[in-house]
Amino acid sequence: MSPAPAARRSVRRLATRLYTAALRLLPDALPPGGRGAAAEAFDALQDEAWQARGARGLAGCWLAETGSLARLLAPRPHLPRRPMTMLTHDLRDAYRALRRSPGFTLVVVVTLALGIGMNTAIFSVVDALLFKSLPYADAERLVLVAERHPLGGRNTVAPANFLDWQACATSFTGLAARQSRTETLLDGDEPRTLRGALVSVNYFALLGVDAALGRVFADADGRPDAPCAVVISHRLFAQQLGADTARLGRDLAFAGERCTLVGVLPADSVFDRGAYDVYRPLVLGPGATRSSHFLTVFGRLAPGTTVARADAEMVAVAAAISGEHPEIELDWSATVVPLRDVVVRADTARLAWVLMGAVALVLLIATVNIAGLGLSRAVARRPEVSVRVALGAGRWRVFRGLLVESLLLSATGAAIGVGVGRIALRAFSAYMPAGTLPAEAIATLDGRALAFTALLAVVTGLLAGTVPAWHGARDHVSGALRSTGRSVSGSRASARLHGGLLVTEIALAMILVTGAALLVASFVRLTRVSPGFDASDVLTLRLSL
Length: 545
Hints:
By secondary structure, this protein is α+β, with helices and mostly antiparallel strands. It has helices spanning 3-23, 34-73, 83-99, 102-131, 159-168, 203-207, 234-241, 270-273, 307-324, 326-329, 339-343, 346-380, 382-390, 395-431, 447-474, 477-484, 492-527, and strands at 142-148, 154-155, 172-185, 192-199, 213-214, 229-232, 251-254, 257-264, 278-281, 296-301, 333-338. Helix 3 (83-99) crosses helix 14 (395-431), helix 4 packs antiparallel against helix 12 (346-380) and helix 12 (346-380) packs antiparallel against helix 17.
């Protein structure tokens, strides 16, 4: 035998004896037989430290254990442990433990940051689509009022019927109409084609929107002999007029006539994200047609009125109109629908839920994978846990310390995930095709999204850390030493847990892959459906005269 290993063993035996002698000073802190178990565990730690880093590792092990013994030997007042003090102590120990394993910590934090960040971004979209109020004043009372064709389905409204509705319906504080049109703006270097709308003079008041500059339409603007007036979006005001406030009250040249600019709508509002840039007053007189249907009608429910009650009233009003004009309105009816159900279509809502489920499943797979990594780490840390238990730490204390490590990792991943979610939202906005989301859906990382992120951090930390913490704290001193000794190989119980986590991860991955494959297959089949005509070498164009 060479002298170096013999000298090393002598030094280790001396350190173990000194450690055992120090433990004799802690008669009340150790369970029966705890000194011998702790000495064996300390010897195993020395072996691991030497195998990992040689003499430097051995010296670090001695320093760490010396510090632990010094804290136990130091006199302290017998005060009750407060919850915040215990939490601070657990967080400090968790930080030190994770700092000693930088590779494991980095992998887990990056994985959680990506998973939680993507879930935060998708939740922001789903929240804007399905749960947030529409960006109008008292939006829950806004409805769409439409005609119902005898063959079924919602239909736009005839102008004469709209006037009758305004005169007869009592379930609404107001009804407003909109008609889409194309505008050609000649004010500038070259003509510009814009989306415009004719709106009743109470349109903006009904939606609860006022102008940022100037005014919206007044009753006088709706008279047939009134001069032409326009309200424009702030988007057009900035792009075409250079945000020049001096243009307010002056004329803008449109194809066929000149109109006075009376108001500019608020910036960064739903009107800046919407389809229309130019609004003119809708003028309807006694000669309004009843045979053509082209108005979109919005209503605001009167206080205490439900959608069902308003719908019943409009069905009765439509039946009366049909009876008076059977040659035109025979069997036509009306329907009232909450505006949210019109803005967010059912297929859009289903797509949002599918996307949310997909990213949640990815995070769950990552969580199970992290739990497996934590379980392997718990097996490798058995000698350390044995020393802590031998020094008096109970199972709950060990379990709590290991679980706090998992929660600290998930909290760090969630903090970084907020930045990942912000970047993902910007990417969605930049690359998502126009019209994918309605203009009323404003996806932002607000307080609701941050609360969801915090909830994800807690749930993920508990799911990923409970099994490793329970397994690490389950064995008492003798059980831990029997299963490890000078080895850190896993027991049968840990092997079963590893196998269970692996099977769960594979099952979740198979669900995700199967769902993705079905979606791709459905998309491929849709692209192969014949449109009923030969579309090869056929071009379309639209010319605005």
